[in-house]
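Severity: low
Component: inverse-folding endpoint
Summary: output formatting inconsistent between runs
Steps to reproduce: submit the following structure tokens with default settings.
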């Protein structure tokens, strides 16, 4: 089904047939499924819904329907992000303004128009933000819902557990702080929540990979091994430490812009987003607000930003003995919403005309820069 649609997508480098030739799909080049370790939930939901849409309307291909459903995933994520920000008692205006940034951040733009489980990243991150607000801000016993959200997130994509691992560490640290203050009962609740969420996240991260490990050819070597990774020379500790700073590129997406970086204004927008990513936790920190909840949100975000590239490279080293010279921003797609939450909290705490103007100006600049850059891109002809 997908192979039949491929020649009509404008990407004909792997096939000899034209869009209307009608030759069998076997004319495609030999391919290998090297993403077998990805959990099935996103593809199960998107695949069956896309089949249903294609069956109802024959003019809509399976690929077109599946790509449209990725937009639904992203829109659902934006809605969930809004409500998760509101759960932190952030004013509506700042919550709306923060959500308005999402469509113009490159790392979110590609999953919203492609068939990839990255499309669910925003939704799962909103779940993590909501869990933290319930446990720390509203002081609720939220163990079962939190564990359920963490487990389902991991079965949408393994990297979507990273924000919950950061949440788990933050809750354990909050518990230790309570123990230090002799608040034993509350500390015990936080410790149990943190350990439970952490264990659930690890199980969700590795369980499907282990299940898939019993299948297939164990001697097979992935065709992409070595394309984006390099062998580790000497101790891997130095490379892992270097990886912790790859989060600084979280807002940019060089491989997704397809020439937009040379369009007028777009590099400025990328620069503004980089300032937002690098500075949001700092902006919140230097406001010196009292309160455990916001402090733990800062800690969770900072830890998550350093955690995701480190875990990705550590897992790659264990599986192949190689590491990524640079861990791509899409691996941290579920961490970026935590950064946006810190940004919204900083705006909310500051308040006033200056914060209002800044909250409104960023999405407006992003919208103008993105549409102007798209308008100036060359038009590529689709083969027929």
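Observed output (run 2 of 3):
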């Amino acid at each position: 089904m997908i192979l039949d649609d491929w020649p009509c997508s404008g990407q004909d480098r792997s096939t000899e047939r034209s869009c209307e030739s009608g030759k069998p799909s076997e004319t495609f080049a030999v391919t290998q499924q090297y993403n077998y370790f990805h959990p099935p939930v996103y593809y199960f939901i998107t695949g069956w819904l896309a089949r249903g849409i294609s069956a109802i309307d024959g003019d809509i291909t399976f690929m077109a329907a599946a790509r449209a459903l990725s937009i639904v995933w992203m829109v659902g994520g934006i809605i969930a992000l809004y409500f998760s920000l509101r759960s932190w008692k952030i004013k509506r205006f700042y919550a709306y303004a923060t959500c308005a940034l999402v469509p113009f951040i490159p790392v979110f733009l590609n999953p919203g128009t492609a068939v990839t489980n990255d499309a669910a990243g925003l939704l799962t991150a909103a779940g993590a933000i909501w869990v933290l607000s319930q446990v720390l801000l509203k002081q609720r016993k939220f163990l079962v819902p939190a564990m359920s959200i963490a487990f389902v997130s991991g079965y949408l994509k393994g990297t979507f557990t990273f924000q919950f691992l950061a949440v788990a560490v933050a809750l354990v640290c909050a518990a230790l702080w309570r123990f230090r203050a002799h608040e034993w009962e509350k500390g015990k609740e936080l410790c149990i929540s943190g350990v439970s969420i952490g264990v659930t996240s690890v199980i969700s991260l590795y369980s499907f990979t282990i299940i898939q490990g019993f299948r297939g050819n164990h001697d097979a070597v992935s065709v992409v091994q070595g394309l984006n990774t390099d062998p580790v020379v000497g101790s891997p500790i130095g490379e892992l430490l270097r990886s912790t700073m790859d989060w600084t590129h979280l807002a940019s997406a060089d491989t997704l812009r397809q020439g937009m970086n040379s369009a007028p204004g777009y590099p400025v927008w990328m620069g503004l987003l980089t300032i937002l990513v690098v500075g949001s936790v700092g902006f919140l920190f230097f406001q010196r607000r009292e309160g455990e909840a916001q402090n733990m949100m800062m800690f969770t975000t900072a830890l998550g930003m350093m955690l995701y590239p480190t875990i990705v490279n550590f897992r790659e080293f264990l599986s192949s003995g190689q590491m990524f010279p640079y861990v791509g921003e899409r691996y941290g797609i579920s961490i970026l919403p935590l950064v946006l939450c810190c940004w919204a909290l900083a705006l909310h705490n500051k308040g006033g005309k200056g914060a209002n103007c800044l909250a409104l100006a960023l999405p407006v600049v992003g919208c103008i820069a993105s549409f102007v850059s798209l308008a100036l891109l060359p038009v590529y002809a689709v083969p027929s």
